[in-house]
Write a structure and sequence with these properties.
135 residues, mainly alpha, His-Me finger endonuclease fold
Length: 135
């Protein structure tokens, strides 16, 4: 624990105060109480932090993208309500550029095909041209 000295700047004194165990305990207790009293705000702040950290976007950008896509998955149009989950942020793993929002199934499907358009086109041709067999 850092002690406060006469020559310390205001910021140094504030930091030393915040590092004191009783202050940390009070702040932790306040944060816990706030989370319990504001579950929706807490959930929104966690979501916003996640989007900012991993994709560099805000919740507002995500919501605008969802509206631009017609409210559903960019591939199959399934809505988040149909999916019972938020749509995943689909992005290029090399450049980090966001392509759109996808449901879990479509996002997983693209991942299984390694985002390779040639393989995806071949899979589409296979499904289109190969009749199901009867065993």
């Amino acid at each position: 624990m850092k002690r406060i000295h006469a020559g310390d700047t205001r910021e140094e004194m504030q930091q030393a105060y915040r590092e004191q165990p009783h202050v940390q305990a009070m702040r932790k207790q306040y944060a816990s109480r706030w989370r319990l009293e504001n579950p929706e705000k807490y959930k929104a702040s966690i979501r916003n932090s996640y989007l900012k950290k991993f994709y560099g976007i805000t919740t507002e950008y995500y919501e605008n993208l969802l509206v631009d896509q017609g409210g559903g998955c960019a591939i199959c149009n399934k809505s988040p309500e149909d999916n019972r989950k938020r749509l995943a942020v689909d992005h290029c793993h090399d450049s980090g550029i966001i392509r759109g929002l996808l449901c879990h199934d479509c996002n997983t499907g693209l991942g299984k095909f390694k985002d390779n358009t040639n393989i995806l086109l071949a899979a589409g041709s296979y499904l289109k041209e190969t009749p199901p067999s009867k065993f």
